[in-house]
Amino acid sequence: MFEITREVSFSYGHRLLGHEGKCARLHGHNGRLRVALAAERLGPTGMVVDFGAVKGIVRDWLAETLDHRLVLRERDPAVAALRAIGEPIYVVDFDPTAENLARHIYEGLLRLGLPVVAVSLDETEECAATYRPG
After folding, report:
1. pTM higher than 0.85, yes or no?
2. What Rg value do the Cα atoms of the chain yield, rounded?
3. Are 34 and 55 in contact (CB under 8 A)?
4. For the chain, is the Cβ count within 10 Å smaller at the N or the C terminus?
5. CB-based contacts of 108: which residues, under 8 Å, 6+ apart?
């Protein structure tokens, strides 16, 4: 099995409804994403997937979804107010924790055809979450 990892940074904001700590307030992160891809055999160019192609696909997906947006759960009362003023937000049906965002990113990149095996999201320099199926 061959495995590669590509890192991509992006910025996002969120809050966790019902959380008892400071994450209950709207706040932002400069996140670092690590996407691991794997293949049993290398392609004709001797690669799992070209690193540049991975970077482009991941950056494009992030630009359309999470990058420089508030990620809010659909029941968050801020959703209506932010939509009313035209603020770009990304609404999800789950609590936007680092763990859930890692899974969401994994599923989004898998739908694009990347042979993703794991996604890690560093929410800060000291805190990270990884999603790997199974």
Report:
1. yes
2. 16
3. no
4. C
5. 61, 65
Q: Which residue has the tokens 């019902």?
A: 18
Instruction: Give dist(CA 25, CA 60) in Å, integer.
Output: 28
Q: Distance (Å, rounded) from C-alpha 68 to C-alpha 11?
A: 5
Pull the structure tokens for residue 50.
């070209």
Q: Domains of the chain, with CATH numbers?
A: 2-131 (3.30.479.10)
Residue type, 7: E
Angle between helices 98-111 and 51-64 (to 10 degrees): 120
Question: Using CA atoms in the order 4, 10, 12, 16, what is the torsion angle rounded to 10 degrees?
Answer: 30
Give the catalytic positions in this structure: 23, 68, 123
Backbone angles phi, psi at 78, to 5 degrees: -75, -20
Of 130, 71, 72, 124, which Cα lies nearest the Cα of 106?
A: 130
